[in-house]
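Note to self: keep these together.
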Amino acid sequence: MPDSKKYINREGWFSIIGNIFLFGLKYWAGIATGSLALIADAWHTLSDSVSSVIVLVGGKISHKPADEDHPFGHGRAEHIASIIIGVLLAIIAFDFVVGAVDKFISREQTNFGLFAWIATIVSILVKEGMAQYAFWAAKKTKSSILKADGWHHRTDALSSVIILVGIAIGNTFWWTDAVLSFIVAIMIGWASYQILSSEIKSLLGESPSEELLHSIRKSTQDHFDAPLHLHHIHIHNYGRHTELSCHIKLPPEMSLNEAHEICTKVENIIMDKFGFVSTVHAEPVEL
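Structure:
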């Protein structure tokens, strides 16, 4: 698997520079047109830069080697950083809702102009480009933090698409800007939920799927004639490092050396096939 550190650093700096540029463009267009949706979207974009800093810091920490205080490495730092991004999205979504309600109550109409069209179209193209790169890098490196940042970019691009639609009808309906802000808030809130639900499950620990358990049992048993009765499988994910513990059953008359050789062989098979560092506990077969 490619070293994700390079991809995380590259994506993080790319995002910071691009988001600062888009913040200035959208904020300028929002002030020029008086659009709450554009101004809020500009601050949303600037918050992406904060998320990208979190990506860089989280990626750097996750690559630190194991030490005395963290014997399984620092891989879960990526999950923690992703949760921070999810929380930021939730806060931004709430702020959008508050702003949309205020504007709806005041019945303020926004007159969109050419500036709004230019800023929004540029934002869609740039943010979707950022999302595509983040998703590509996440797939290549299997990095959850890059995937989370990719969804952050995607929500910004989609919110800009909604705003673009609103610009087209904004001069007809006074409530367009308020409704757009509310729709964007829902989209951002959904992205926050997706990120938080996934990453919190990873931190709390999930039971391995039946497919994975079946594959582990079959892959190990294929190397032995006698049944191993592999059971009590526990998998502990530490980001880039995964620990597995399991039990096997062996004849009670087998010597300790023979049992040790079989356990070691099982551990090596699991490492070669799945990349898991395993600990195998031998039990006597009940006669």
